[in-house]
Fold this protein.
Amino acid sequence: MDNVTEDMRSKPPIPAQVIPFSFPSFEHFHLASGLEVYLASIDRGPLVSLHLACPAGAWHDSPKVAGRATLAAELLDEGTYDLTAMEIAARIDSLGGFLSSQADWNASWLSISLLSKHLEPGLDLLAQIVTGAAFPDAEVARLRQQRLANLQRRAAQPSSLAADALAGALYPGTAYGQPAMGTRDAVKALGRSELVDFYRQQFTPRGSVLILAGDLDLTAANRAIERGLGGWSGGQPLAAGSIQSRAQEETRVIIVDRPEAAQTALRIGHASIPRTHPEYVPLQVLNSLLGGKFTSRINLSLREELGITYGASSSFSPRLGPGPFQVAADVETDGVGIGTREIIRQLHRLQDESVDEVELQDTKTYLLGVFPYSLQRIDGLASRLADLGIASLPDDYFDQQLAVVRSLRPEAIQMLAKQHLHPTRLAVVAVGPADKLQPQLEGFGRISIVPPSEVLQAGLGPD
Amino acid sequence: MTAVTSARFPIERHTLDNGLRVVLQPDSSLPLVAVNLWYHVGSKNEVPGRTGLAHLFEHMLFQGSQYVGKNDHFRLVQQVGGVANGSTWFDRTNYYETLPAHCLSLGLWLESDRMGFFLPALDAEKLENQREVVMNERRQGVDNQPYGQAFERLNETLFPSGHPYRWPVIGYMDDIAAADLEDVEVFFRTFYTPDNAVLTLAGHFDPDQALKLVESYFGSIPRGGARPEVVASLPDEPLGQVVTLDDDVQLPRVYTAFRLPSFGEPEWYSADLLSAALSGGKTSPLYSQLVYERQIAQDVNAFVLPTELVSSFVVVTTGRPDTELAEVEEVVRDAIATVATGDLGRGDLDRARNKLITSYSDQLQALDDRADLLSMFTSYFDEPQRLESEIDRYLDKTPEDLATVARNRLTPDKAVSIRVVPR
């Protein structure tokens, strides 16, 4: 081909023929014990990724035991009845593998990634850990101290302070009202027996999901699962307690005072829907257009027009309970008033005006187009399958929802905005110098100013 | 052209008449294509007083070019379902898009428009806006972050005045504020030329057709002139310095660094393996002693930077609230001394090597990561086939190789440490 002509140079090229894509095939079944299994054989090199998710998320922790799930999960691989912490570590290290053990809001996760030739010893180790965790006293004490130091570290971290203040404001007195890592008082009081009870109750095959993805021989995988986890048994795990957000009639402002801060961490949000809500995916389309991609309204406005931030984004959370909707930006302190006004204006605008057809179409093609991008790595595929298992979604969910995305109309977006955005009942959290922030935030709602040490209590005051 | 037949990844390498090097790595496992462009310019090509210019320039390259309006780069990529970004480092700046495969030509059109026709769209208003954005990026990543300035102090201590690794990639605030249109223009003319770039495509395409497309979009862009040599004199001076930094942090942390030979040298790989042996995994000497046994650290991480002029070996340890950092430093010193005497166990070496092999396989999974590695191996070594052979450089290392690095490079008189302590 010759060099492009001036005419070709001056306009974006016409795309070639679309190459069809469908979600990779996978097997999905239950063992007699109740354990749910997803297997996906996919060629991304000589690797496998193993994940076991148990119904032991931080949303199971009442405020009194905040931090229990995350601490229990971290302790899983710190000793079984047969192996010490260092023996477990030596096993995974000798396989050249990586083991992690941690909890998020929804579940506890035991994950191993390693070369596929080591699948069987990897799965055996995972099984040994989840069925035989011993919570040795010395390891409990060590990790508790480590956790307390990490909680202390958060007190100097603007993003942690902002997250905690928002959580405290939206969900006082519930599991979502404190950090998943817990609070100082709760963690100090957590004893071995509470952790062991939680482990016995929640780390059971019923309600757990096992995902194997990568370079898999399905027969060998099934055999390894049967050998390692076939004998795992247990009762019915407890459901998480109910999570109610604070009833709020108007917008409230919480300033976390950091007099010397070089910038302000701004978070604006309200409680919203759980992952299992039927409109979760349509709301992802709304969110993408509002603040979920670089070319979203909020990012273009705050970054490219106002120049007051490196980036601004919004999100609905994938929690099993009614998690937060929030807008987040680290903003130059002098721009916080303007930024807050603009964010709230954008929320109203979605309710008041129908979105432009082209803008919506661009957003839909963006989400449809980047979907395969998330499957480049076996861990990406595994996390999609985990999403199905944890939220009990059907096997054809992704194909189904991609069709829902394609069919969304501007009227539907406006309806969703009216129903699910609450621009007059927000929590506005600003972590920065109060003397500069207070004058800018007058007029948005009642202002409370708290020191960093009291972020969690900020939500407890009267409306 | 040279075609390299390899076990897993077919690779083609071409050079256009204007000097642009083109690497093609076809892979049809997903309907995607990664477009990855490396310019061999980074913060090391700046001069004192204009630090941060390479990074600010990267931002400007997303502000449009002759036929691409402001914000249109991201808009055009995202509206077809693609992702795009760029990043700046000491030695290079990269720009990349991962697109649905049928939109390959869009990526080439966007990249060629800004390589060939950037200056007509440059104006003061865009520069002003991006200066503000970058200053906020610096506040977010450095000035408003606990430990945010530690790395700056570390390099200011490790490298002498005037050395190009002495200043931070993002630049100092005053310098970011001072950059003007002429700086941006000169930077573009000097460094953003096809003969200073590598273009890699990885994904679902036909290599012959792709090469024709690349030629048609990039072939007419003229090659550049001479580029100024980077001056980097590094006297072999004794270091052994400790600097204390009071910061708004809750836990003390110490950064210890040593100079190393450049990325690509045999010794660099020994050092990289050594860093993995010291701190990778819970059974490693540093983790097991600091975090597990003595319980004086929250975390510890040793790593080696892949930099061109000279590299560095860094150990970062976060203490417990009441930890004396001197005690941490002593454990690190002793662990390195043990390696230096040849007493690192075979087991530690094998563990580190096995983990590196797994990590490297992991890194090769995604098209965009693979394309970036191909651009890197071609920019630095002119050897894209290192994509698969790079891991071999670790395979024949012995405890004695690691001991040699530890003895020659990692002794206390060659260390600099930054202790960050709570105010």
Remarks:
- Residues 245 and 420 of chain B are 5 Å apart (CA to CA).
- DSSP finds 15 helices and twelve strands in chain B.
- The longest strand of chain B covers residues 311-319.
